[in-house]
Design brief:
homodimer, 345 residues, TIM Barrel, 15 helices
């Protein structure tokens, strides 16, 4: 595949780049009025996720309207548990909610692995194909999935939580159930990511949103072990691992078989670089709240971050998904600042 | 004041101890059936907080029923913003909710400092006096307050949040408003803590529940700066600072003018000890979810933690508040294991 702009792939692989590539987590959806228009024409978020033409449309919008260096397929990490047999709803102002949860062996019947991914998640794969047609080689398309630990959290807790104490309880009361479920999620996730690659994803990111709620030992046993299986399996395209809040485990993550490591906004880039050397690309990590500042201040804060880079191995992003009420003009200032920055390496 | 058991005060000051002292955050309230009975006899959590006789009663319950080495006054960190002029409600299954928020200079009228703490928060001070009468010198009584940053979060966001993006927005858009509000909260908090000490609190803990959502620099400017003012001001009794999730700032916190530093369950005790030397007492940090294990497993996990201590300067606790559905018998196993442990230092 020949791209007009493949900066992000080169940066991920540690190859030469003319400037740092930039994209934003949650760039598809949330902030653009053009996205809200599409969303308003449908019954809700889930219908949008499940309608390939429209999902593709909002995937491409930030490429056209913001000038990012990559698209990311518009979808949700919870399509995986749903495909396995655990349906979810998205409740306004509350977030995801599962009617059933998996807290016993008996409930494992809602965590199937024996189904045809290409069929059951065809809407995502179809959206990838349509989006690539529309992008037409301008930039690469990123596919993604939740990390097994994060998907486990939702399947066991049944909803968002500050502590995920129901999920974490299982690690103490029934670790073999936890491992069984994590293994199943991992198997399906690997198949799903490979299907995304077959459909046209040029890069993969795995999101471990709830990495930060486990201590180092438990995260190694119930989180990284399964993230590592994914890292071993995904060899076809560059892979980014983003374990939010896993500060204690960063030294382990940077040794995993991936190209890039996502950093949340609380992670020190300079310290992480000294930990990782030149072995990995770092992705991130401007505080999403920085985009509430004035244009001049956004420019200053973005340049500060860029000045802290001591390597060409960086992909610029926020340290978390862009917040819904951020002015798209502010996002453009962020992107423009990155594009104007003269790379030193 | 002569105590039958002043282990916790001696451990905080780094003096000799026969064994490690133990208590649990949220031990007053939540888990005991005897607490639920008191709570059910009143209209709700707030009435309990505001009724000194009953607040004192549930404060003393864990001393009688669990055998902890300290009592902590039953109250809420949100009594401070309420005293300043910002009323809150506690909504079942949702948490605190403020009708008004402070996001403009004009709204600072809901953040008064010019009032008589001893009068407006008399119910807390009265509860401290009654609790001490009932405890009658068996163990010390801990007073507490939220750290300015955490109180700021609630006063500006108006409710709990995963990201506190409204609170953090202000740090970028109106830092002088942030500092003004933080200064006001700090002034009131210092007066409030001194009033608690005058009323009979033998030790103070400051909780910074939302420390972990700021990057290191912002937490230094908007969090630690004000925590430090409190640490400088509270000289009468031992002081514990607990900044949950502030892993990047631990090296700064252990240098502050306090006796003890609380560690959440994700913080490595051995690494923290090597950072702090013998200058501070460490408090914590068993994962609250460990108390869902079997009795034998709780014993094993607690002994593991105790074996990791390389100093006498420890106060045993969980790494977060005890969860509501934990069996009190499991809590007793945790406490008994600590009491039976032979200290090496």
């Amino acid at each position: 595949m020949i791209f007009q702009n493949d900066l992000i792939l080169r940066a991920a692989r540690g190859e030469d780049i003319e400037r740092y590539p930039v994209w934003l987590m949650r760039q598809a959806g949330r902030i653009l009025p053009e996205y809200r228009k599409v969303r308003a024409s449908l019954s809700g978020f889930k219908e949008l996720v499940e309608t390939p033409e429209r999902a593709a449309e909002v995937t491409v919008q930030p490429v056209d309207l913001l000038g990012v260096d990559a698209a990311i397929i518009f979808s949700d990490i919870l399509v995986v548990p749903e495909a396995m047999g655990l349906e979810y709803q998205l409740i306004e102002k509350k977030g995801p909610w599962f009617e059933k949860t998996i807290r016993t062996e008996e409930a494992l019947k809602y965590a199937n692995t024996d189904f045809d991914i290409e069929d059951r998640l065809s809407y995502v794969l179809e959206a990838i194909k349509i989006a690539n047609k529309e992008i037409n080689g301008r930039v690469p398309l990123i596919g993604f999935a939740g990390a097994p630990w994060t998907i486990f959290c939702y399947m066991t807790e049944g909803q968002g939580s500050k502590t995920f104490s129901e999920s974490r309880k299982i690690l103490y009361t029934n670790p073999s159930l936890a491992h069984e479920l994590l293994n199943r999620i991992t198997d399906v996730t690997i198949k799903y990511l490979k299907a995304q690659i077959n459909a046209g994803a040029h890069m993969i990111q795995v999101f471990d949103s709830w990495a930060g709620i486990l201590g180092e030992e438990q995260y190694a046993e119930f989180g990284l072990k399964y993230m590592d299986k994914i890292a071993q399996a995904i060899t076809e395209v560059p892979l980014t691992l983003f374990a939010k809040g896993a500060h204690n485990s960063l030294s382990k993550i940077v040794k995993m078989d991936c190209n890039a490591v996502g950093l949340d906004w609380n992670t020190d880039i300079v310290k992480t670089r000294s930990l990782v050397g030149e072995n990995k690309t770092l992705q991130g990590n401007l505080d999403p709240c920085a985009l509430y500042s004035t244009h001049a201040e956004i420019e200053r804060l973005t340049n500060n971050m860029l000045n802290s880079f001591e390597s060409k191995r960086h992909i610029v992003n926020l340290g978390h998904g862009v917040y819904p009420d951020v002015d798209p003009e502010k996002v453009k200032t962020f992107i423009k600042t990155v594009k104007n920055y003269e790379i030193k390496y």
